[in-house]
């Protein structure tokens, strides 16, 4: 008798994702790999998210509802309901290429000590028409620490949980998602899980289509609680990576990322901005500029802080669009 494939559990946290969730679900149901269970956790949505998910037969899509507790809590609930040997956390406004899971599961078949990753393709409306991608330095098989710090020389650049297929034991051993975190929670969770594996295996063609341009997305928000979450997540990850290897190369990547994040804290949270500067100095400093292009040139004459104020003023007049709370990638 032919051995069956391991079950893959796809866990989809969803909050006010009605415009996108049907397409996300369909992209999972159209995977060439079997068996797959899809678990949708409606995190207290105020729109039709739950009703749309419940249109699908229960043997295909399991739907659980909870009060609004955030993406991390929804992921943990979904994981507690899952049975799969492999786990994928997948946002309710993204899409998977049909062969995505098959390519990853096949690579892991003989490597239970590894985690599989794939490719990120950004899109705005229709993946077939407006997708963009940039091959990254970590699009190859790497040690987990090397994967984390090898993003085109920047490091920690594209941390999106949907990229990965995790063997179940790594998620269990990680302790799960930190439910107090609302922003950069992917960074904290994925770093902890990845560092348990022996290798991160790159799967060419395993595309995740990452929806961009959602102005009300979580990573576009600058409320104090979200800024505090991003600081806490980066602080935890900094200590984690230094514990794995306290070296000049790791410190350089971390300093650069702290520098990039510090620009988000100004002027909304001067306290976090000052604390981030302490981390940058402790790690050896970084000469990363806050802006490129015309804004970068302008910063040389009037200072980057003035340019930042100008950007904030301009954005205050920009039209807003609704979106789910699942945008959590540091690279945005």
Structure characterization notes:
- The protein is 41% helix and 16% strand.
- The model is unreliable at 320-332 (pLDDT under 50).
- It is α/β, with parallel strands linked by helices.
- The termini are far apart.
- Helix 2 (49-53) links the parallel strand 2 and strand 3.
Quick gist of this model?
By secondary structure, this protein is α/β, with parallel strands linked by helices.
Main CATH class of the largest domain: Alpha Beta
Strand proportion, as a percent range, falls in 15-25%
At the fold tier of CATH, the topology name of the largest domain is Spore Coat Polysaccharide Biosynthesis Protein SpsA, Chain A
The largest beta-sheet arranges its strands as 3-2-1-4-7
CATH architecture of the largest domain: Alpha-Beta Complex
Poorly predicted runs: 320-332
What is the count of distinct domains? 2
